[in-house]
Amino acid sequence: MFYNSTRNKELRISAAEAIVKGISEDGGLFLPISMPKVDEKFIEGLQKKPYIERAADILSLFLEDFSYEEILNYAKGAYGGEKFSSPAVAPLVSVGEKFHILELWHGPTCAFKDMALQILPYLLTGSAKKVHNEKKIIILVATSGDTGKAALEGFRDVDGTGILVFYPVDGVSPMQKLQMVTQKGENVGVCAIYGNFDDAQNAVKSIFTDETVKAKLAENGFAFSSANSINWGRLAPQIVYYFSAYADLLQKKKIKNGEKINIVVPTGNFGNILAAYYAKQMGLPVKKLICASNANHILTDFIKTGVYDVNREFTTTISPSMDILISSNLERLLFLLSDSDDAAIRAWYQSQKETGKFEVGEEMREKISQSFAAGYCDDCRTKKTIGEMFKKYGYLCDTHTAVAIRVYEDYLETTGDDTPCVIASTANPYKFSAGVLSSIQGEIPLPADEFEQVSELESVTGVKAPNQLRSLKDEKPRFQDVCKKEDMIEKVYKMLGIE
Ligand SMILES: *Cc1c(COP(=O)(O)O)cnc(C)c1O
User: Fold this and answer.
1) Which single residue of 35, 114, 179, 185 could bond 149 by disulfide (Cβ 3.0 to 4.6 Å)?
2) Among 31, 9, 19, CA closest to 274
3) Is 27 in the pocket of ligand 1 (CB under 6 A)?
4) For ligand 1, is residue 171 a contact (CB within 6 Å)?
């Protein structure tokens, strides 16, 4: 199976090339030119398999230049052993009658990004061999908090790679920051930038597509790739867990094979929910994908109106990993829905670049609304939801997951659509202790120290914080630098030791 680009449908490259490159030179994103299809029997078969085999079955449909054995070995390396604290890897937890919560945060860094970033280093180094890449691959990451840490952990001390992470200086939670600045490994670098996530992501994207930069890197034996969800190798592993959740619902006898489900995803860069859309297009019985936003509800507005308008206030929320206005993976959805109309994509994104805005028209809006519903939830309702979930069910959820739960309840109320529903839970609550603790306790003053908040949250809820977060208390920060976004490329050269 070949891959093309959202901005050049005639392009033909292999999966391995797409993964090594990360982003297309034309500024577009790579995607497979056709959609692999599965049937009920395939889904039935997943039921009895462990996550590792579910992953190999699904990934091998997209990565035809890899053998099944290769992919199975990658999956074993990524999801096997003690890496994930749950033997199910991504357990589906039923809470009350209506919530089936897909917990995607049992990996080493306690957020869903591990689901893809544990396997991406295998896919990337495997791909590099296949395309005879001799250069050292430098993973350049812009992060709203969780990708950075998960990518650092995935790529640390992986031969033939280096990783550099940029995060918005005031745009991540204290725990997320601590996780990154204390990162161990010989091939890692971390730097804060003045600006928000969009600034970081835009700067990284333009570094990737800059010919001068590319040439200079090549001279020195380096090539860039991406671990953000612009990389197909990051997106494909995320498709797996939606199939896995469906298989688990079958096994728990909550649904019959072939019965449709809804899926709610707390959304920022549109990667996670796009993976769910791929699952649906492949044949997973899904009725509606419900896109949940926080106060930065640009995607909700887009799904409702067909107008994508970045000209708005950027809000810092208690769900910082969703504080994003320029949502990269939407471009892939638009390409799929417009029957690969790369000219339209180029025009829309040119317009976004020039005016901060584009409009896709009524026909596209109609197509979007066939598969997607959307809603949003501000910090106040997010906190209320965390409090209610804990009081009613004893279930402690993080701020991002709470956004999804609230938006789902709103959806239930307005539509009455009580189709069985999977809620993607994207982070462990202890990554966002301040927001979660004040949701449970009400607005009483919080201890200033992050780890005192953790202890207090443990004693109030009886839910234990994961060891890998608690142990950060004793770690020394290694990376303290902050730079301006204009200086990012200089910073990159410096970190790579290039003059
Ligand atoms: C990254 C992230 C999201 C948003 O996921 P996208 O794929 O960017 O839409 C939501 N919640 C958490 C905790 C995250 O880390």
Assistant:
1) 179
2) 31
3) no
4) no
Decide: 230 in ligand 1 pocket, CB within 6 A.
no
* Ligand 1 centroid to residue 387 C-alpha, Å: 21
Report the C-alpha gap between 177 and 212 in whole angstroms.
Answer: 32
Distance CA 2, CA 493 (A): 33
Residue whose entry in the numeric block shows the structure tokens 């991540």: 172
C-alpha 240 to ligand 1 mean position (Å): 16
Q: Is the CB of 328 under 6 A from ligand 1?
A: no
Residues taking part in catalysis: 113
Kindly report, residue by residue over 392-443, the tens digit of the pLDDT.
999 999 999 999 999 999 999 999 999 999 999 999 999 999 999 999 998 8
In degrees to the nearest 10, what's the CA dihedral of 383, 386, 390, 391? 40
CA of residue 144 to ligand 1 center, whole Å: 8
Query: Whole-angstrom Cα distance, residue 287 to residue 228?
Result: 28
> Could you give the CA distance from residue 174 to residue 162 in angstroms, rounded to a whole number?
25
Cα radius of gyration rounded to whole Å, the chain: 21
Mutate to test the pocket of ligand 1, among 110, 146, 398, 430 (most ligand atoms within 8 A of CB): 146
User: In this predicted model, what pLDDT tens digit does every residue of 60-92 receive, in sequence order?
Assistant: 999 999 999 999 999 999 999 999 999 999 999
Ligand 1 centroid vs 434 CA: distance in angstroms? 19
Q: Report residue 144's pLDDT band, with 50, 70 and 90 as the boundaries.
A: confident
The model's pTM is 0.96
What's the Cα-to-Cα distance from 182 to each of 106, 178, 474, rounded to whole Å? 20, 6, 10
